[in-house]
Amino acid sequence: MKRSASVTRLLALLRKETRQMLxxxxxxxxxxxLPLVLILLFGYGLSFDVTDxxxxxxxxxxxxxxVNAVAxxxxxxxxxxxxAHSMFEAEQMIRADEADAILRVPADFTRNLxxxxxxxxxxxxxxxxxxxxxxxxxxxxxxxxxxxxxxxxQADVGTEAASVAIVQRIWFNEASNSTWFFVxxxxxxxxxxxxxFLTSLLIAREWERxxxxxxxVTPARPLELVLSKLAPYVVIGAIDLVMCLLxxxxxxxxxxxxxxxxxxxxxxxxxLVSLSLGLVISGLTRNQFAASQxxxxxxFMPALMLSGFVFDLRNVPxxxxxxxxxxxxxxxxxxxxxxFMAGDYWPQIIRANVILAIYxxxxxxxxxxxxxxxLD
Amino acid sequence: MxxxxxxxxxxxxxxxxxxxxTVAAVDGLSLSVRKxxxxxxxxxxxxxxxxxxxxxxxxxxxxxxxxxxxxxxxxRDPQQVQDRISYMPQRFGLYEDLSVxxxxxxxxxxxxxxxxxxxxxFARMLEMTDMARFTDRPAGKLSGGMKQKLGxxxxxxxxxxxxxxxxxxxxxDPLSRxxxxxxxxxxxxxxxxxxxxSTSYMDEAERCAQxxxxxxxxxxxxxxxxxxxxxxxxxxxxxxxxxxxxxxxLQARLIDAPHLVIDAVPQGGNVRYILQPDEKAxxxxxxTGEITTEPRPEELEDAFMMLLRQQEDEAxxxxxxxxxxxxxxxxxxxxxxxxxxxxxRKFGDFTAVASTSFEVRRGxxxxxxxxxxxxxxxxFRMLCGLLPATSGQLDVAGxxxxxxxxxxxxxxxxxxxxxxxxxxxxxxxNLQFYGRAYGLGRRALRDRIDEMTEQFSxxxxxxxxxxxxxxxxxxxxxxxxxxxxxxxxxxxxxxGIDPLARRAFWRTIxxxxxxxxxxxxxxxxxxxxEYCDRIAIQDAGEMLALGTPRExxxxxxxxxxxxxxxxxxxVVEDARARRSRAEAA
Amino acid sequence: MQAIALYITQTIALIRKEMLALxxxxxxxxxxxxPALMQTLLFGYGATYDLTxxxxxxLDQSRGATSTELLARIEATGIFARVATxxxxxxxxxxxxxxxxxxxxxxxxxFESRLAAQTEAPMQVILDGRNSATSSAAASQxxxxxxAYNQSLGATSPISILRRxxxxxxxxxxxxxxxxxxxxxxxxxxxxxxxLSVAREREQGTFDQLLVTPLTxxxxxxxxxxxxIIIGLVQSTIIFLVILFWxxxxxxxxxxxxxxxxxxxxxAAVGIGLSISAVSLTMQQAMLYTFMxxxxxxxxxxxxxxxxxxxxxxxxxxxxxxxxFGIDTxxxxxxxxxxxxxxxxxxxxxxxxxxxxxxxxxxxxxNRLS
Lengths: 376, 585, 370
Prior knowledge:
The structure holds 3 protein chains of 3 kinds.
Chain A: H1 5-23, H2 25-45, E1 53-59, H3 64-75, E2 79-84, H4 87-95, E3 101-105, H5 109-114, E4 118-125, H6 129-154, E5 163-171, H7 178-209, H8 211-216, H9 222-251, H10 260-285, H11 288-305, H12 318-326, H13 328-342, H14 346-370
Parallel strand pairs in A: 1-2, 1-3
Antiparallel strand pairs in A: 3-4
Helix pairs in contact in A: 1-9, 2-7, 2-9, 3-6, 7-9, 7-10, 7-11, 7-13, 9-10, 9-14, 10-11, 10-13, 10-14, 13-14
Chain B: E1 6-17, E2 21-33, E3 38-42, H1 49-56, E4 64-69, E5 72-73, H2 78-84, E6 85-88, H3 100-110, H4 115-129, H5 144-155, E7 162-166, H6 174-191, E8 195-199, H7 202-205, E9 210-215, E10 218-223, H8 225-229, E11 236-239, H9 247-255, E12 261-267, E13 270-275, H10 281-288, E14 293-295, H11 300-311, E15 336-347, E16 350-361, E17 365-369, H12 376-383, E18 391-396, E19 399-400, H13 405-410, E20 412-415, H14 427-437, H15 442-455, H16 469-481, E21 487-491, H17 499-514, E22 518-522, E23 534-539, E24 542-547, H18 549-555, H19 564-584
Parallel strand pairs in B: 3-8, 3-9, 6-7, 7-8, 17-22, 17-23, 20-21, 21-22
Antiparallel strand pairs in B: 1-2, 1-4, 4-5, 9-10, 11-13, 11-14, 12-13, 15-16, 15-18, 18-19, 23-24
Helix pairs in contact in B: 3-5, 4-5, 5-6, 14-15, 14-16, 18-19
Chain C: H1 2-24, H2 26-46, E1 54-60, H3 65-76, E2 80-85, H4 91-97, E3 103-107, H5 111-116, E4 120-128, H6 132-152, E5 159-166, H7 173-204, H8 206-211, H9 217-246, H10 255-279, H11 283-299, H12 312-317, H13 322-336, H14 340-367
Parallel strand pairs in C: 1-2, 1-3
Antiparallel strand pairs in C: 3-4
């Protein structure tokens, strides 16, 4: 069996890195157990979908028409009414966080309704603007359906006038389910986490333990060191990717409309970006504490907050958009959401992958330079 | 005449320093190392030995000058050099989570050792290091000495064109040290290996064919050990300790006269010393007085101490320590301050310390010796109250450590093996913290800090983490002594510090003992055991010997009678042979 | 009396040393303030659910006055910006897939004629649902515009809803997120600081040196906890000031109550950090444990989405999460002007966490076997 010296060295280093990774339990916890926890937490824990919003109902007008008007609320899946005796009591409920909104039926409601001018008051706790807007939407549609109901009964036809109706279609996520929106982004977060956090410790640990000095004075080449450190974590990343895809499909029932191969290819490419970013940080700081802090600050937190994972980048100021677009995570985030929900859209696939490939190349070169076998 | 293995011409290397700008670690150094022999680099801390070694290995680029290793310009093509040499840094980077075999395999693969050659080589290495039994054990679970041997084995998985060893025996016990040298010597003899070793042990330098004495980045002297030794010819004597006098007190008397005596150390119950070359006969006679002195053959260490003392700008640091420390009350009443009865410590199934008993009297210097992993660190940690005992009685300063640890702790001082103070704080802040933690009042604290910084010549404003090795050690001592403890615990305080600093350190210790402070110390320098009143040798958790240095030497039989190092090896090997016989039976 | 004085001076010495060790190192000093400030600004601008820019394209097959009027109204909001005018339906997919348009508005050919016939005329709105929050927000905006237009046509509904939002009248999501940052950003660092405080000393060997002094576990506990708490509060204060003066989110409640809540919350967080530290042998372990804990703490805190949207089992799990109650207290005091009585129940879980973790870590300092 003849192998070039370089291949033998690379295999030896690979074996060493793999063994080290497998023997250090904490690596496996972060690499495999934490992603699992995150999948479950993100999948179940993060949701914009308001259910059972608590609405305090204040009936100042007890007529039959009133009961009718709020019937829609009672019947709704999304709102659960709490009966309050007075506005004062309802306000107290809001302050004590026992209700999210107040629906007030004024004493003159029936009289005004007969005159075609019935007015209900909806007071919302605006602190959580998403929930407030959702409740408002539910309340509106509940009232509308109550009206239709009333119209049916009174057979009050012929009042139809010229009006514009909206026929709304939401592509990719017909039910506007926020789980569908979060789960694809999870792939990005987990790849970032494994990459940056785990590898940021790798080189720094060897500096701190003094093992690099011995390793440097061997025929091992810097690029071999870099590659051998990347490879075992690519495997961990691939396992995590499979976990994510399985959870997405079977646990959260998120559609995967793009082709699996492209998802796998792009994810591995992004994984390489974040792994090599971790190595660069590690090589530059040579200190595990600083490396992990910086890795969190420059990769994980931005991937969570600025990549379009939760917050839509269209809504942020230009400066933040510029920062976001510098992040590889942003490009991969956009791509993965499209791949999951919209399918293979080639212009984006090509653009994102080219950007990721450039990042990988640059970062591997820099990582190689930080291992330039010099102590000074 | 073959081409030199290493040829350095006017090599320079400086580092940036926050306080003083640039510091020249290697300053226009020239040397030429011959092939196929052992070459030693010796010198005090900060002489530039490690920097020079790293430049040989291509890990650092010289700022100037020419450096060729194996005929290659190492600055231009470090990789070519690294393909052919082996280098063992001060702390060899073993992968602690990999097993012994896996570490060996890794380095064999990296050096491209073919499979068939590997089998023989590994067998030989494992046999020489006596580690064949431990191939599956993770490297992190080995004792310090074994780690060092494994490190050497890893660097020697193939026969390199040049072997660089940077202080291979720091923190290694005498047995492992002997094994390490046996391996190196054998390879030099069998394979004509070229070896450059930096060391602060003069007996190691003595084994080498060529010795370079380095000082402040330059070569101070070079030659064969014999040629270097010659410099001390006619100046070396032994003073015979009269009965009833401690050897260390006699040593203190001699070393405190630096204008007459270059160096003095206790050895074999007596004191060996070197006179200044231009000494006045009558003054020497006045100093030695009634003591019998006799000339002795000069050793490399004598020449080394001479060379270094000539370079000292300031008076020896020991002079500062001669002021006697405040005398602890109730001195020398003969009552034991530490009583240990049937002390046992187990970790799971493993017995680290088996039923151990001893007493230490007030004002005594008590040495705890043993090979790496013998249980002396465990014993030591129990004595300081850092580790609870599994069973047995343990009284320190009259308190039972099990029930009254806080009170006992207030009366002890502790100096850890490695520098364990806060590196980002300056000297004063560190001392202030420990002083207050021990409950010193404002004025008392200020006075003590002044005393301590003066006694140990420390700059109160210097940042602790950036102090040179010897000064860090002094600061650790100052912190351990800030509250004037009755008992001072010192864990391998002299590991990795040079002979000059060791002399100064021991002068402080003997002064403290004279002041009534009880000292418990562990060390790997067996000659330092000679400073102790009594020593205990531990191995595999058991007490093998306990007594005065003389008693222990005599216990070891005729081999050991000459010096402590051989006595120690004899005692430990005897016990091990007995144990393996008992196991076999 | 003297014993108490001694106890206090010894503890102060330890606190002083901790603060010095933290603040003397320029890099750790920078790490204490810069990230908090940077993240507050970055997230302050970047973390928003508010729809501010929605590119859309139009396929107007009716080419009548109404569609023009409606489009003018949509564009007048300043949020919707027309990026393309399409010629046929086959172009719609391209606009949405590429993300160039968030929505496409389609007016069918008979749009105008149906209106003229006094009937309902449907207009089609196709939205990109990849970001469900954005698409819902855009949909409701369009609905509001169309509703207003219908009213102008005289089609009034017999029931109208008068909406009023308390505490955050304009539904600015920044108002919701930023006060939560006061608690969550500072927790990131205090937890890490506390978690490393003992682990670092263990790794560097200084912990042994500390354990041989007469300091008692309770003194070490206070000496280790207080600096982290102080730093945590300083960070919270910086974030608080940025939010109040830079982002100008009005503070409705009492500063005293806010700080009372923050102090309690920070103590609980430091307690968790110190427990991690006491268990860890190395800094690496401490960091990994902290990190593994921080993620669930953040996710299950109501920072990004409300706790009430979670499944019941996760909602129960949040009771041991100090961040949940920290964020809730800060939000309600800051935005709603909650009184102590309103938020009193939040203090129970916080104090419970502190009461368990702090004594536990003090015990572990000495009894953790090495």
